[in-house]
Design brief:
19% strand, 32 strands
Amino acid sequence: MKRLNLSEWALNHRSVVIYLMIIAVVAGVLSYNRLGRAEDPTFIIKTMVVNAVWPGATIDDTLNQVTERLERTLEETPHLDFLRSMTTPGVTTIFVNLEGSATAAEVADTWYHVRKSVGDMRHTLPAGTLGPFFNDEFGDTFGIIYGFTADGFTRRELRDYVEDVRAKLLSLPDVSQIEILGAQDEQIFVEFSMKELASLGIDRSALLAALRAQNTVRPAGVIQTGTETVSVRVSGDFRSEADIADVNFAIDGRMLRLSDIAHIRRGYVDPPQPQFRVNGEPAIGLAIAMQDGGDILTLGDNIKEAMKIITSDLPVGIEPILVADQAVTVDDAISEFTASLWQAVAIILAVSFVSLGIRPGLVVALAIPLTLVIVFLVMDVVGIDMQRISLGALIIALGLLVDDAMTTTDAILGRLAKGDGIFAASTFAFQTYAVAMLAGTLVTIAGFVPVGFAASSAGEYTFSLFAVVAIALLVSWFVAVVFAPLLGAMILKPPKQQDEAPKDGGILGWYRRMVTKAIQAGWVTLAIIVGVFGLSVLAIPLIPNQFFPSSDRPELLVDLTLPQNASVQASKATAERFDALLKDDPDVDRWSTYVGRGAIRFYLPLDVQLPSDFFSQAVVVAKDVPARDRLKKKLEDALASEFPAVVARISPLELGPPVGWPVQYRVSGPNLSQVREIARKLADVVASDPSAENVNFDWIEPAREVRIQIDQNEARLLGLSSDAVSGILNTVVTGIPISQVRDDIYLVDVVVRSTDEERASLATLRQLPVPLPNGRTVPLSQFATFDYTQAAPVVWRRDRIPTLTVQADVAPGVLPESIVTAIAPKVDELAKTLPPAYHIAVGGTVEESQKSQASVIAVVPVMLLIMITILMFQLQSFQRLLVALSVAPLGLIGVVGALLISGRPLGFVAILGILALIGMITKNAVILIGQIESEREAGKPVREAAIDASSARFRPIVLTAISTILGMIPIAPTVFWGPMAFAIMGGLLVATVLTLIFLPTLYVAWFERGERTPEKHVGSAA
């Protein structure tokens, strides 16, 4: 039975194939324009936040009765990686982090399981607990942010306009949600003096009950007549603070107006909610998130058009300011990478024309865009957007996909030179090389398998690298065996000189002499190469390690952390002082400041911080990257000298999964005091490295609190209880909401509290008149004593164990891995002195890097199994299999040399490039071995067959390597792809030389011992 020859079919059905090419071009161009654009690939933030509130509880009670109960239940969560919780007095916040291997479907099911299991145990939480509340949208990205400032308008008026803008923007296509930033809820304060109430004989509780009763919304009935239905309404509800002020009370037979005994005013929530500032001015922000699958560029254009219309309707004084625009960032990034892509295409085409000539080069030149348009079509079908990873993958794939087209073109030229007709020459490549090319393509794809199936966030982030390369290589093989032969038949002509080129002239002659000498030297050649390989392995520790590099965007993140007992007012004052540093700085384009919280997730890899009164974060956009670097140095110096109480961190945006502080060590143990002591010793160890900067803790400082010790016997004699006293104190000091005013779309809480004088100091609190059931009052100090104590304002736990993190930044030009490696002996020495229940664990960048690399390494056996299986089917010999595999590791020589010379780190992306390099090298080895076997089938001895086969494959192997190496040049300078580009360029350069020298030498040394005739099927398969 005749084997199917796709090239022959294509030549016999020219019109159909030409039609398919036209369809492919049109569909590919349409798909290219329709592909989604994004800055980074989407990956699921596998974290849910579970929150519960127990008002009035101490931190110990909250830990034991709320946090502990919730964590015990959450430990049963499927796919759980670890729990991390933050507990403050009365508030529990738990992060449920899933394993990196959890799929999107499993994540959704898991969040349902969390809700259900926590709902089932909710009745076991203490009475009065609010929640638990769930947030499984922790990873939502708000890529477009507008800030609205007001000049001459109240904050309520500004919010009214912002709410109107939000309503209009929500109607735009692809907008999923819009969050308001920095808005302060209004409150109506009813402030009274406890002394005055006592002198008038007014019962505080009766006053509060009367206010609640008047504003209650209850049905008053419905009257049904013979013709209509009439609702009955009772007046008295509050519509403004004036309605509250006019409330009258009957006191001892006389009427008193509320405004006569209390001060009523409208204000904003006290203490303030998280605030938002733009360019140093108070503002209200709108953060806009895009729907899944949307196009950020289209969304950005739609919002800009809508904002032009909206802005024209806003009154003078209200100004919208574009704070973050991911659409512009994505457009710039896509444009830059697209330019790099076309530069790579131009380089490869130039190599093709120069090396092959005009007509052969034209065949390759047409095959490349044909391959690309089909790749765009497939990307569109499977839903892969154009983003940092997929575009980089296209550039990497370019040098690989040209290989098959060059092999086909070179084979056609070779047969034409031997006198074959155009039809026979065009079909020769398929029957001779098609299976070997397919095997090589599959082996190359197998090299990217660890990229595609690494079960980690980093693996998910880089998945499209595997997907796009696999698509591109399979398409390139199809184009090489179907379209390229037809293009060759239409374009190529037999060379004028029909004889073979002289074997002893030019570069090819030089190569033949060199490979002949290498084969003659035999084991000496092999020993030298193996020795160099051994030296490269020993040199690996000299290469710095890195997880993911920082972004090349112009933003800086500035974290401002005060002592954890600091108030939000202190954070606001710090933020205002920091704003003054940025004002009029020539390197600053714009900035926004989040007071009492971290920045909203305006780009996917952001390490989002929880709302905390003591924390503020600024996003500073510099004019460009050099300006960013200058600004970082200026701000670091200013913060160090002018903000001594602030733990500040200034960092560019991260790439890859979020990490936070680069150097982190976790100290865990049951006793908080012991954990603190160990953490302080560990901090000394970290600080001993001069490259570690700004060593600090995520929590450690105690906070003051006032303990009011009630004499229970005395209180009972007075007819009081701790509950009654707590209620009175809460009303006086903090205030309690007793009703709500329904004001347009807002609900405004009515808060009753004491005047500022009575709640501002401890001295006045001692003399606070406490009403008794008999109508008299007594000072609080009569039955209570006051003490200052200290308690932890916050406790972090990991997997139910108190955990304190020592964290630090790194000096410029230093990688976190270098610091961790340098201080590892001291850390290990400290760890040996710890009690059994306490331990130290490395966190931060190093931990994430190790987890991600482990997820890749875990898939390497699968990669090797796939490779070996493909090679065994192709080579059908254990000996030839070992020869082919022996070449792959030798690329490490070039990788180590390239990274050391360029100074690039060995990071996660570079490791992916090294694994992919194995497939590229092995592909060349497979085809070369197949060519040797084919030459031996023709009756040549082993040595002659090896030399002739190597000479025959010299040009396509070298041209493919040159194309791949030069095609990497556009992305070599980039921050993200640079390490991978240099690894592949150096590794492929050395591996190509070694494939053409080492492999024939090893083959001859191995097989020449006993001359034999190779199996027929190997030559035909090759």
